Amino acid sequence: MNTASRILPLAAAAGLALAIFVAVQAEQERPPAQPIAHPAQAPYASYIGGAGLVEASSNNVGIGTAIPGIVKSVAVKVGDHLQAGAALFEIDDRELRADLQVKQASLDKAVAALHEAQAALADADAQYALVRDAEDGRAVSRDEVQKRKHAALLAAAKRDSARAETGVARSQRNATQSALERLVVRAPLAAEVLQVNLRPGEYAPAGALATPLVMLGNLERLYIRVNIDENDAWRFRAGTRAQAYLRGNSELTAALNFVRVEPYVTPKQSLTGSSTERVDTRVLQVIYSFERGSLPAYVGQQMDVFIETPEQPPPAPGVPR
Asked: Three-state SS for 241?
């Protein structure tokens, strides 16, 4: 028997043994994979479950600018605690400052013209007074009296016109000064800085933005906005107990305090950010609150919320459940 005749039976036997080993291993039950974190379990016998989104008790206030332009400076950073009226950022003011100087010069010119008109009116009144009260009608002609009278009236009209022009110049100066003050954007409330989305040298557009230039919020107490499916909205009762669980660690939980219901049922908001996501569900939004130190939660974080509901009595005979 040659070498090839001896190798083939050995190879066949080895292949058969491997096939039997693989088959035996496949028949053995593998232990199920353990989840990294166990999902939260409802603490109530009858409940509504919903996704909650953490937000500031003042709501998340997105700050923009009424006057667009290049950012000159940013006065805050994330985490700063601010008082109402504190400066947040400033838009480049060189153009408006130059315009303010022009408007101030126009006002100074108008004020000088007003003083000149007032002096001319005083002189015209004095000249008219000399002839108006003359006892001897032969001392001055009637034509001269009328001439001086009309000169005084004309001087009074010029004084009023100069006064009006001064008011217009002052209003224009004040409008430019007000616009200059608006270039410094200030905090509308006492809050903490949550986001800063601009840098010096960047262009800050005006109007409502998808991403606000600065995000503020009062975090002394946190709110959680819970979305309740419209099919479960009829089961909700204000004031019942509610519990929130941190996603990723169901052992971190906090009791919630009812704040309010927003009674307008809205389309469910996408939490994925996908522009192509379909919205085919409407939700009732309920606001709860919890102490900031009770959970390591952050604004914008999702949480699992369970709201207790009264247990429904069994249906009457013949009535479908």
From this structure: coil
Distance between CA atoms of residues 213 and 88, nearest Å: 10
Angle at 11 between CA 9 and CA 17, to 5 degrees: 105
Residue 308: strand pairing partners: 47
**What residues form DSSP beta bridges with 226?**
52, 286
Q: Could you give the CA distance from residue 171 to residue 160 in angstroms, rounded to a whole number?
A: 17
Between β-strands 282-291 and 221-229, what pairing exists: parallel, antiparallel or unpaired?
antiparallel
Look at phi and psi of residue 239 and say left if phi exceeds 0, alpha if psi is from -120 to 50, else beta: left
Question: Residue 93 and residue 204: Cα distance in Å, rounded?
Answer: 13
Handedness of CA 69, 74, 79, 80 (dihedral sign): negative
pLDDT value of residue 37: 65
Strand order in the sheet with 191-196: 61-63, 214-217, 191-196, 81-82
* pLDDT in the model for residue 308: 92
pTM: 0.69
Phi/psi region, residue 163 (left: phi>0; alpha: psi -120 to 50; beta: rest), is: alpha
CB 49 within 8 A of CB 305: yes
The rounded distance, in Å, linking the Cα atoms of 33 and 282 is 35
Q: Do 55 and 215 touch, CB atoms closer than 8 A?
A: no
Q: How many CB atoms lie within 10 A of CB 61?
A: 17
Tally the C-alpha atoms within 13 A of residue 21's C-alpha that lie toward its C-beta. Answer: 6
**Mind listing the pLDDT tens digit for each residue in 247-285?**
888 888 999 999 999 988 888 765 555 555 555 688 999
pLDDT tens figures, 36-90: 667 778 888 899 998 899 999 888 999 999 999 999 999 999 999 999 999 999 9
